[in-house]
Amino acid sequence: MGQLGYEVAPAAIAGRLTRRTEREIFVAVVDERVAGWAAVRAQEPFVEGLGAYLEGLVVDESTRSSGIGADLLDAAEAWARERGCTEMRVHSNVVRDRAHAFYRRRGYATIKAQYYFRKPL
């Protein structure tokens, strides 16, 4: 996560894993070390209906362009199909041009640009 600018403590990740609901985490291992991961969850927004949301997909810089990202995305899509999801939804930061090209090559289309708001509670 740190490679994408998200500093998250290991204890926080462990807590999130124990609270998993309709979510799956796929991990790619190369030479006995984590080379990438993808997290996907089923969601049913009132407007859009049942789909899957790719919460994150990260491949270690040293193993990018080796097919790991495609394999992780394939696994997430298969998981979603098995649950009856009709589409995969992905948000990607506007500065991640390489990621955008990856998703387009995999058949994803940009559907809109929007602001993302947050309020601490």
Task: Note down, in words, how this protein is organized.
This protein is an alpha+beta fold and 121 residues long. It has a single domain (2-105), classed as Aminopeptidase (3-Layer(aba) Sandwich). 27% of the residues lie in helices and 26% in strands. It contains three helices and four strands. A four-stranded mixed sheet has the order 1-2-3-4, covered by helices on one side. Helix 2 links the parallel strand 3 (51-59) and strand 4. The longest helix has 15 residues, at 68-82. The chain is globular. It starts with 9 loop residues before the first helix and ends in a 16-residue tail after the last helix. The model has no long low-confidence stretch (mean pLDDT 89).
Short description:
This protein is 27% helix and 26% strand. With 121 residues, the protein is of the alpha+beta class.
Number of extended strands: 4
Main sheet overview: 4 strands, mixed
CATH architectural label: 3-Layer(aba) Sandwich
Strand percentage: 25-35%
Distance, first to last CA: 24 Å
Put simply, the count of helices is 3
Number of domains: 1
**Order of adjacent strands in the largest pleated sheet:** 1-2-3-4
Shape by Cα distribution: globular
CATH hierarchy class name: Alpha Beta
CATH topology: Aminopeptidase
Structural class given helices, strands, pairing? alpha+beta
Elements, N to C (H/E): HEEEHEH
CATH superfamily: Gcn5-related N-acetyltransferase (GNAT)
Mean pLDDT: 89
Supply Rg.
15 Å
Fraction of residues in helices?
25-40%
pLDDT < 50 runs, ≥5 residues: none
Task: Considering the chains and any ligands shown, give keywords for the structure.
single chain; 121 residues; alpha+beta; Aminopeptidase; four-stranded mixed beta sheet; 3 helices; 26% strand; globular
